[in-house]
Amino acid sequence: MRDNDNLTIERPTFVSHLECAMHGDHYPADQVHNLSKAGKPLLVRYDLAGVKQAMTREALAQRPPDLWRYRELLPVRRVADIVSLGEAMTPLIRLAKLSRKHGGGEIIVKDEGRLPTGSFKARGLVMAVSMAKALGIRHMAMPTNGNAGAALAAYATRCGIRTTIFCPEDTPEVNVSEIELQGATVYRVNGLIDDCGKIVGEGKATAGWFDTSTLKEPYRIEGKKTMGLELAEQLGWELPDVIFYPTGGGTGLIGMWKAFAELEAIGLIGAKRPRMVAVQAEGCAPMVRAFEAGTEHAPRWEDAHTIASGIRVPQAVGDFLILRAVRESLGFAIAVSDASITAALHEVAREEGLLLCPEGAATYAAYQQSLADGRVTKQDRVMLFNCASGLKYPLPPVTRALDRHKPIDYANL
Ligand SMILES: Cc1ncc(COP(=O)(O)O)c(C=O)c1O
């Protein structure tokens, strides 16, 4: 096995068609698509009997540890179209001290901060851009809370596709800078991500941009799906009891749910599913409100605010898919306060040496809250998603200083 076998060896591909996630009508593969005729997300469908023959446990065991090991369950057909920056499998990190503190339930963090551009957005965008390359798209546009735009810029630049990106004006500085440095044209907009999305929609209509918004193109979800494929394989094809996922547009949650169905269809896992928990912030919790109201869709959340900018998404085009996965899995949606996010971030860093991003910290806050209200038990094996490197966010200043020219009181340092 060579390190780049997944990127150089042609493998059979099994995409059969695309399907409207709401109505089930079919669309041909290998053509440029955004939403279905009904304005709903399109899902990629595969000949799963064929995948079952080709992508066995034994075949997987021979392949390098990156997301391209699952090629038969991915849409990119030719190695020439893969635009890679090294999408390494992300580690599972056990929080042993905090497990003990909370009564012994295993707490596992999937640390997505190790991916290119420092977030799990790389999974979705490497797929969307590789497919854009395959389909001859020349100019991609996107509204972003930061991390998605950074990943789009990186991959698109790598294969010569032009990108125009819009983010809310208070997007973390590091995100805006990395987007620009990685070759995109980025604008700060005085509004939220859905306001940015409207600009992209108008640019699509008037200037012919390709709209790369969450779930408005079919392939980001296929990339995010690899989180589910990967965690299943890493746990020996045994899924955890509960997954806590910081939910904005929800691509990862929807993608993992799709991954588990496909893995069962090809015989790699059984019928057991984790309970899927959509974690949101109290200042922006449209899914929690809709979950509790028992509705299929989640109306826009007005005056959205939270320190966890990645999950500040007032309205999601895939709302019904998020809510469907949460309900089918017997999971739930939960909102946490900004104060509990900050406390969680500090606790995990101090106790376990793991610096989470605020969105990742929200999942630990949600776990604590769910243990306390009984929705999760201390027998449950839970997985928390840390979706980005904590280093991408503003960190608290340290004021302690030492004057090396004065005597140092070592005993009291
Ligand atoms: C760090 C982080 N966590 C979570 C999310 C939400 O992801 P999703 O759109 O899959 O719900 C984002 C999206 O921007 C993010 O950047």
Q: What would you note in describing this structure?
A:
The termini are far apart. The protein has helices spanning 5-8, 48-54, 57-61, 96-101, 121-134, 147-158, 173-181, 193-207, 220-234, 251-265, 286-293, 319-328, 338-352, 358-373, and strands at residues 15-20, 26-27, 42-46, 92-94, 107-111, 139-143, 162-168, 185-189, 210-211, 242-246, 275-281, 332-336, 382-386. The strands form three sheets. A six-stranded mixed β-sheet has the order 4-5-13-10-11-12, with helices on both faces. Helix 7 (173-181) links the parallel strand 7 (162-168) and strand 8. It is globular. The protein contains 14 helices and 13 strands. With 413 residues, the chain is α/β, with parallel strands linked by helices. The model has no long low-confidence stretch (mean pLDDT 97). Helix 5 (121-134) runs parallel beside helix 6 and helix 9 (220-234) packs across helix 10 (251-265). Helix content is 37%, strand content 15%. The structure holds pyridoxal-5'-phosphate (PLP). Residues 119, 145, 147-148, 214, 246-252, 310-311, 357, 359, 387-388 line the site of pyridoxal-5'-phosphate (PLP).
